[in-house]
Amino acid sequence: MRPTFFMDPSRCIGCRACVSACRECGTHRGSTMIHLDDLEPGLSTATAPSVCMHCVDPVCAKVCPAHAIQIVDGVVRSALKPRCLDCRNCVLACPFGIPRYEPKQHLQMKCDQCVDRTVEGQKPMCATVCPSGALTYGDYAEVTATRRGKPVNVFWFGGQRVETNVYIMVPPHEDSSRFDLMEYSQENGVQSAPLGDLKAQSQGGSP
Amino acid sequence: MSAPVAIPETDILKPRWDKYGPHPYDQPDDGWDSAHEIDHVIPTHCCYCGMQCGMNLLVEKNRVVGMEPREDFPVNLGKLCPKGVTAYLQVHHPDRLTHPLIKENGAFRPASWEEALDLIERKFKEIQAKHGKDAVAVTGGASLTTERAYLIGKFARLGIGTKFVDYNGRLCMVAAAGANMKAFGVDRVASPWSDIPLSDVILCAGINVAECFPIQTRYLWEAKDKGAKLIVVDPRKTATARVADLHLQIRSGTDIALTNAILRILIEENLVNPAFIAERTNDYEAAVAAAMEVTVEDAATLCGVKADDIRRAALWYGHAKNAMVLHARGIEHHSKGVHNVLSYINLVLATGQIGRPGAGYGTVTGQGNGQGGREHGQKAEQLPGQRSITDPAAREHVAKVWGCSPDDLPGPGVSIYEQVDKILEGEIHGLISFCNNVAVSLPNQNRVRKAYTDLDFYVNVDFFLSETGRYADVVLPCAVWAEDEGTITNGEGRVIKINKAVDPPGEAKTDWAIMAAVAKRMGTERYFPFNEPREIFDELRKASAGGKADYAGITYEKIEANNGIFWPCPTEDHPGTPRLFEESFYHPDGRAVFHGIRYQTANEIPDAEYPFLLTTGRVVYHFLSGNQTRRIGFLRDQCPEPYVEMHPSSAKTLGIANSDLVWVSSRRGEIQLPARVVNTIRPDTLFIPYHWGDRQSVNLLTNDTLDPYAKIPEFKACAARVSRTQGGPCEGILAPDVSVGVLNATPETTGDPAKPDGGAS
Fold this sequence. Notes:
The structure holds two protein chains of two kinds.
Chain A: E1 4-7, H1 17-24, E2 35-38, E3 47-50, H2 59-62, E4 71-72, E5 75-76, H3 89-93, E6 100-102, E7 107-109, H4 115-118, H5 125-129, E8 135-138, H6 140-146, E9 150-157, E10 160-170, H7 181-187, H8 195-202
Parallel strand pairs in A: 1-10
Antiparallel strand pairs in A: 1-8, 2-3, 4-5, 6-7, 9-10
Chain B: H1 10-17, E1 40-45, E2 54-60, E3 63-69, H2 82-86, E4 101-104, E5 107-110, H3 113-131, E6 136-140, H4 146-160, E7 165-167, H5 174-184, E8 201-205, H6 209-212, H7 217-225, E9 229-233, H8 239-242, E10 246-248, H9 255-268, H10 274-280, E11 281-282, H11 284-291, H12 296-303, H13 307-319, E12 323-327, H14 329-332, H15 337-351, E13 360-363, E14 382-383, E15 387-388, H16 392-402, H17 416-424, E16 430-434, H18 438-441, H19 445-454, E17 457-462, E18 474-477, E19 486-489, E20 494-498, H20 511-521, H21 533-544, H22 556-562, E21 565-566, E22 592-593, E23 612-617, H23 633-638, E24 644-646, H24 648-654, E25 661-666, E26 669-677, E27 685-689, E28 703-706, E29 713-714, E30 718-723
């Protein structure tokens, strides 16, 4: 198995070193492909990074009418410039909300695990700098041997099973087959409220 | 208490400084799009905090155009925080000062070095002729390399001939330094950070690891992955406290109540180490007597936490096979800063948890060279090698190395904040400052700014025009860290090497060359014959030889070959000393000393008029006074302005909503800033980050009471009020009573995080 990302949101300190480091990657030219979210602003200091999960059977590539998103050696690549039609199907389809549309370049862009670095034996910039190990890049055996968390790469969105090449570390007692994001969202009212309302709620209720 | 005075208003004076920023700048020198052809990769270290993370600078045609993680340096293994990632962007920043500036009619104009030095020579000589040698003062900083920090002390005492020299580390690590000297006889962290993952229980007191020392998070998780327990003592639930096994969310300034309670439990549960106490320490009885004076329940009330949580912390620490105490400014920035630190050291000594792998203790220095910068003589009372300037033997040794008579060396000066007193009292008339920004960083800013306005002649040396630089008559442009070489001693006592990547811009010079140039004009150039930093380091090795901080056996080559050398290192064949106190402490009898410390309140406690306890600190995106980081676009975008953190229950009482602009005031000043309503802070506490100047400076409010031993100001506890309107009411907030003997019930702070008001009473 090739090395991959392991994400552990519980370790994230929200420093955005990954966000700034992603800009330094030679091919990104100052754009960052990482999302870092404050999970409950005001209620907690919890934050979480998201990189592309590099799905085994990526929906983004399936919905691309131009075959602009290619999968090479388990890595889902950013859209190829001449092929990308600006349609943004991939942005809408990704269950994890990862791809971005860059209006300036008329192109979908997303994390491609720094293939330009990994082919030269370097690790992706974000995972190299991450102070806490919230983002780690390495071999499955190597990473799991040093961590107490359990790596999970199967996610349920309602009835849809999504398997990824990137792992999320969950507490040891979590059952990966029950890591159902849709159910969690419904239980926590994520789906029912528009984003703006949610923000107001979590920030202590502005009048 | 002096009356508030008019301060330079950004709005009115902005046109005068506008050229010099701070402007956000956010791209490599040649833009993001150019294809680089890298000529050199320079291995060096970050310019910011005491972790001193390794990094590589990418150089193309004498320009720093990017960075690359440096995975071979054992402290950070390539890891960096966002300040580190973007640090290189300051090198070719458009705000850089490239020529000397002379102030005329309130505005700066470029000048030649010749003209600037002529003016400095004339003014300094006039002042010294009229008021005596000591009327010109010198200040330094702990971001300087050790070579430059060492030279600050020599420059002040021999170059200028003044006793008044001190540095901004006075606002940083001196409480820990003073306490370490008292308890251990030496001022250095006891354990290398590689010991942290070997601990079973780590007690982090007043240390916001996630935001101030992000890379240290790595060591904490390595320990946690092996099953270690993490105890965090902090009035705020920081990102580090969030992942702690136990968070003691105490009221700021009540550490001694907590530590005495823990010591009492350790004694009562027989968890002390009698053999260690008998063989390696003195004065245990004094600590016991103080600890037994207050019950655990009363201490819990003083601290505002549950007695059971204090018990749990004590039992975990007491039962640990190997335990470690780490602390930082949260316990040190107090008028009882030295006592706070000594009270934590009592726990370390009582359990004998020091001097073994995984059993240790240490403060984590906030500035890059916080350690090296406080060892070699830029402190008012110090000579190189952690020697005392009042010790005749030390004076003789240093005078011999410097080629002068011991009688040529002035006596001790005063701390950097007490220099403000001396200016206002008319004792100091001239000043030359290197590497500090006191118009942001000192407490009670109205008084500081008045003093700096009063100076007859002020020379500011910096690479960006700082808020303090605006008060200067002459500003001299200096090099940034990537434009010179030298050594830094990181927070664990490891001497590392900074390497030069590019030349300084325009006519900017290194700080040491500037000191030599000024000394030449003062007729003292014979003491500054240096052509490169290596020559300064070699002199420093001799000056420190035989002292506590002994660098005699350290060479540039040895540092590079070993990824740093831990001092003491007395001879060239000595490997250095990563772990201290394995066999002996540094007092003459080889023993450590307990201190009986009784709880005392902060100098100012909340009352009906000022019912909140205000504390200050950092955010992860900015460093110290922000003179560097507020100019980096990425960092400024993440945190553009200060804010006041307050608990939803207090906000609700005062009718304040998240993001509302509010007025926060203390007995010393008033500032307006947005409210950030968060569940992560105690209801009786306010927090404001301190990286901004002018009217955004929380130090307009902070208390300038100093610790009697270390002279560190009480940044972390003063009484304050919040109101929606200027000078408006702050009613309905019950001031916590923290006086001993009057123990009222306190608000519950660890409420249900799902409820917006946190379940607070």
